[in-house]
Amino acid sequence: MRITSASIVLPLIHATSATPSSPEPQAIFSNPPSTSSPASHRIPSIHESAIQARRILHISNIATLSTTFPPSTSPDISPQENRPGDVANAPIGLMEYYASCPTPNVYDPTILGVTIATTMKNAASGSNVTLSLRYQPPPSAPPRPDDPWAYLPANLPRFALIGSLERMSEEEVEEYGVRECFIRSHPEAKIWEPGTDIHESWWGRLVVREVYFFGGFGDRARIGWIPIQEWRGVTEGEVEGYRLVGEEGYEEFLGRKGWEGEVEGGNGEEGDEQVFRIQPVDL
Fold first, then answer.
1. What is the tens place of the pLDDT at every residue in 126-162?
2. Is there a contact between 165 and 60 (Cβ–Cβ < 8 Å)?
3. pLDDT value, residue 27
4. Are the C-beta atoms of 220 and 34 separated by less than 8 Å?
5. What does the pLDDT read at residue 57?
6. How far apart are CA 203 and CA 186, in angstroms?
7. Is residue 6 classed as helix, strand or coil in its secondary structure?
8. Model confidence at 71, in pLDDT bands (50, 70, 90)?
9. Which helix (H) or strand (E) holds 185?
10. Which helix (H) or strand (E) segment is 126 a member of?
């Protein structure tokens, strides 16, 4: 697929990009040679693309976590689940909360694992895990009359983190304030955090082994694999200093309200009837 200068004009996502000039036709789904692209449409370096991805990881807190179902003969499958046999080895992607917490491995997103969840059961059965993220400008993003395609989803970065889940020790959770970091991002998660009676849960991380990045249209964004050393090598200063197009107001876009709740009734014994009530609270 190719576009010409007569069709659309799409700037690089960095807010400081200059108004683009009309480029020569370029391949969209590949990175063209740097010499063939005008200066205003320079393909970001691998490190610059890694900064973009790490910035998205930092400011977002919800993504899609994908796993594969184990073989139908797996001993981990409970008969009570009544799982169809033809989903064996099939992938499934579900929404998942995560947080970017200041552990030594800040590049590995923090997860609150619920043992009974399908994703966590698949991971426990040996499935690899992929966390997929994308940048979505907030409604407050300022208009770009010079470029009506600036906020086109196909022109914005998205990427996948491929790896495995790893549980954190209680000592690590305590030392680095993992619980406080996650609850700050997801106040309602207090309902099912470790130690509550709702579900068995645990603090963990996605140990990232590979990163696939799709920065947007290929004549002005990088598409391809980011080496793991580049992903891990991005500094916190680079993450804090970078801004995506239209990012102002993103925190408000994530929501001004959280949730709190409590369990009413029963003594916590099997067979007791309990009611869980939640209500919105200002953060």
1. 999 999 999 998 888 888 888 777 889 999 999 999 9
2. no
3. 41
4. no
5. 97
6. 14
7. coil
8. confident
9. helix 178-185
10. none
- Could you tell me if 17 and 48 are in contact, meaning their C-beta atoms sit under 8 angstroms apart? no
Write out the DSSP string of 218-261: TTTS-EEEEPHHHHHH--HHHHHH--BTT-TTHHHHH-SEEEEE
Coil/strand/helix, residue 195: coil
CA-wise closest residue to 214 among 168, 268, 163, 160: 160
The single-letter code of the amino acid at 86 is D
> Which amino acid is it at 93?
G
Using alpha carbons, select from 55, 20, 57, 16 the residue that is nearest to residue 149.
20
Written as six digits, the tokens of 172 are 């690590």
d(CA 203, CA 170): 8
Compute CA distances 265 → 42, 191, 253, 259, 273, whole Å: 62, 16, 36, 20, 7
* Strand segments (E) across the chain: 2-3, 26-27, 62-68, 91-97, 110-114, 129-134, 158-167, 201-214, 223-226, 257-264, 275-282
- Six-digit token pair at 108? 């590995």
Q: How is residue 124 written in tokens?
A: 């426990």
263: its two tokens: 């369990």
* Nearest by Cα to 70 from 58, 48, 85, 55: 85
The model carries a pTM of 0.75
